[in-house]
Amino acid sequence: VHPNVSQGCQGGCATCSDYNGCLSCKPRLFFVLERIGMKQIGVCLSSCPSGYYGTRYPDINKCAKCKADCDTCFTRNFCTKCKSGFYLYSGKCLEKCPDGLEANNHTMECTNVVHCETSEWSPWSPCMKKGKTCGFKRGNEVRVREIVQHPSARGNPCPATSESRKCIVQRKRCQKEGKGKKNREEKRKKSNKDESKETRQESKGRAARRQNREQRENNNKTQPKKRKAPNKEQDLAPVDTAH
Fold this sequence. Notes:
Blueprint: E1 5-6, E2 13-17, E3 21-25, E4 30-36, E5 39-45, E6 52-56, E7 61-65, E8 70-75, E9 78-82, E10 87-89, E11 92-94, E12 101-104, E13 109-112, E14 117-118, E15 138-144, E16 147-149, E17 162-168, H1 177-222, H2 232-235
Parallel strand pairs: 4-7
Antiparallel strand pairs: 1-2, 2-3, 4-5, 6-7, 8-9, 10-11, 12-13, 14-16, 15-17
């Protein structure tokens, strides 16, 4: 072993140097060179830092730098996040998105263009004027639809979601709300009154019939039973004196 190489190292190093830091790492750790001024120091990490990707070899695991326009990457040729000013598309960092795609400034990615989509029109509303459906001849009716898919920045904008058109209805007078309510209340009271009257009459009739029935039963109990009249023919029959 070289005099400057030590095996009693700290921080995950298998071997190290006082001047260069880690020279090799313990199993499963990644070796990466960090620059401090004009000097490079070897360190051992459980995962590679931002701007690096890890590669495992039989004798050592190393962290290598991503491309200059890539912030994080899976391999050198496949970026997962681009640096500022670039848009990610299929693992590459581009200054401008290809045709048919648009730049998403929120995710910094090239995405598909999304056009607006709406639902079907609803049926036309009743013909109305100033919120009423009576008291006029000409009014308006309305139909609406909903937006089911909002467009992206370069997508087709959404059309109008409501339509109105003139309509004609047969002229009729509006029934006053107070008067109509009063009439309904009077009809209801009259109906209840008639029902109560019929109920009272039926009750009286039943009571009278019950009283008459009880009266007849009492009379039957108090009157004496009539005796049968004697049979005159039997009384006038001759008496047999032979004996």
